[in-house]
Amino acid sequence: MKKIFNLFDFSQKVDYKIEILAGLTVALALIPEAVAFAMIAGLSPLTGLYAAFVMGLITSLFGGRPGMISGATGAVAVVIAALAVSHGVEYVFATVILAGILQILAGILKLGKLIRMVPHSVIFGFVNGLAIIIFTSQLDQFKTLNEAGELVWMTGESLYILLALVLLTMLIIWGLPKLTKVFPSSLAAILAIFGIVAALGIDTKTVGDIASIKGGFPPFHIPMVPFTWDAIALIFPYAAIMAGVGLIESLLTLNIVDEITETRGHGNKECVAQGTANILSGFFSGMGGCAMIGQSLINVSSGARARLSGIIAAVMLLVFVMFAADIIELLPMAALTGVMIMVSIGTFEWASLRTFRRMPKSDVLVMVLVTFVTVVLHNLALAVLVGVIISALVFAWDNAKRIRARKYMDDKGVKHYEIYGPLFFGSVAAFNEKFDVLGDPEEVIIDFSESRIVDMSGIEAVNKLTERYLKQGKKLHLRHLSRDCRQLLRNADEIIEVNILEDPTYKVAVDR
Questions:
Q1: In sequence order, what are the residues at sequence separation of 6 or more whose Cβ sits closer than 8 angstroms to the Cβ of residue 367?
Q2: Which of the residues in the chain have pLDDT under 50?
Q3: Residues linked to residue 444 through DSSP beta bridges, in sequence order
Q4: What pLDDT sits at residue 231?
Q5: Are the C-beta atoms of 277 and 54 separated by less than 8 Å?
Q6: pLDDT number for residue 503
Q7: Which of 388, 393, 461 is nearest to 424 (CA)?
Q8: Which residues of 134-145 are buried (b: 16+ CB within 10 A; e: fewer)?
Q9: Residues 6 or more apart from 225 whose CB is under 8 A from it?
Q10: Strand partners of residue 445
Q11: Which label site among 33, 95, 286, 344 has the fewest CB atoms less than 10 Å from its CB?
């Protein structure tokens, strides 16, 4: 019988100590992130923490990628911020539930495979942009409120103390694995800085200075929203964007973790798990979310490979909120800042910088543009969409130049055109230039054995070409066209030679 959970698949080698310690590390790193993202959306810190618990637990149990961490994210916070301000938290919960339903539908319809359409240059740009965002978001920890209530850069002793603690955290994370990998370096760094600050009585910013994380078990709550078409019409655009952003970020994170672990996740299964998690998040007072690349990399770099680490992270996060808030609020932000800065350094694809001279200029442009859109707009879905569109246009342009024709006259005075390359909207103009209708002999053969008619533009180009030859009273033969093409050509009976053995079978993309 096939196991559902890798956690209970004892044929899989699982290091339970590493899984538990990695989960604990992730739980500590989730707290400031969840609180910050909830505040970005204009919501209570607990809505972010509850979302991190529900999202993390459900996706760890049922998701398509063991070791991947989900929770409240900045991408989702940006989407729902305007709705939270204009209509309140109840509409946010309803939006999260609707987004979850859309994500489940995407998984059922097997739309997860569409992530294969994202080129590697777009993934590079996405990852680099996300690394920059993770890094720049940590710079806020080096700011403080002045007397006017404005955020200004720290100065003097407080800045030096914070810098020293952050650098010490980074040094431990970098150096400890060189000595031993028995204990996760990120957790060791957090505990070491916590001990130093407590022992020496150092006055520095703590988690509690951001917001209180004390709370109870996530309360079940049906959103108080009128079940009317007007309400659905209001929240549907937000839900659709949230569902799209969440799936794009989750599936890209899945691909990145796949590459690191050299294993393969299941995209459609992850779509269903993300949707289920968001539905439950909306019912249990959470702001929703998706996969988190930073926390996923912390988890994987700590050695976690099974579902246990994600389950531990979610459960321990709830334990902290319910029973250990007073202790967790004493954690120095310097330690968590150092961890996230090291995550950003590890996330950035430094190899992509070395390939600038070797990669095609179009790929470099796409990578830089996706990075720019990600960093400036903090809209990951838009950045990926822009990258995919530009890559598709570049691909179309390159293929448009590849169509060519080999021309020759046989001993019977018949002119042959052997077409090579795809015939589609981008190559129609070049295709038409290949033919000399007025100068050609009375009989012409066009052979498509090395070509494919891809779309309706290609069909129309062939139709117009046949009409030009027919107007000149010349006999035209079209060879090696698929049955789909023959059905779409208006003069098919007169001009097409049917060869049952050799004619290809493929479909033409049309809008009929």
A1: 121, 122, 124, 125, 128, 352, 359, 387
A2: 1-7, 500-501
A3: 415, 476
A4: 93
A5: yes
A6: 66
A7: 461
A8: bbebbeebbebe
A9: 90, 91, 93, 94, 231, 235
A10: 416, 477
A11: 344
Distances (CA, A) of 501 to 420, 450, 487, 496: 20, 16, 18, 15
Nearest to 224 by CA among 51, 97, 380, 353: 97
What is the DSSP code (8-state) at residue 34? H
pLDDT of residue 431: 93
The confidence score (pLDDT) of residue 491 equals 58
As to burial, measured by CB atoms within 10 angstroms (0-12 exposed, 13-18 middle, 19+ buried), residue 54 is: buried
Element containing residue 53 per DSSP (H, E): helix 45-62
Amino acid at 98: L
Tens of pLDDT, residues 34-85 = 887 887 788 888 999 999 999 999 999 999 999 999 999 877 887 888 899 8
User: Would strands 443-453 and 415-423 be described as parallel, antiparallel, or unpaired?
Assistant: parallel
- Give which of 126, 161, 501, 50 is closest to 347, Cα–Cα: 126
Q: Is the sign of the CA dihedral 441, 444, 450, 455 positive or negative?
A: positive
Dihedral, CA of residue 113, residue 117, residue 121 and residue 125, to nearest 10 = -60
Nearest by Cα to 126 from 255, 240, 238: 255
Secondary structure class of 111 (helix, strand, coil): helix
**pLDDT for the residue 116:** 76
The DSSP call for residue 143 is E
Place of tokens 């070491």: 192
Closest by alpha carbon to 57, among 248, 301, 220, 276?
276
Whole-angstrom Cα distance, residue 405 to residue 431?
A: 8
CA 108 to centroid of chain Cα atoms: 19
Instruction: Say what the pTM is.
Output: 0.75
Digit-coded pLDDT (tens) for 415-452: 999 999 899 989 999 999 999 999 999 999 999 988 88
In angstroms, the CA 397 to CA 491 distance is: 30
Rounded Cα distance, 348 and 29, in Å = 19
- Write out 150-203 in H/E/C secondary structure: CEEECCHHHHHHHHHHHHHHHHHHHHHHHHCCCCCHHHHHHHHHHHHHHHHCCC
The pair of structure tokens assigned to 222 is 């049906």
Q: Residue 496: what pLDDT?
A: 59
pLDDT of residue 4: 45
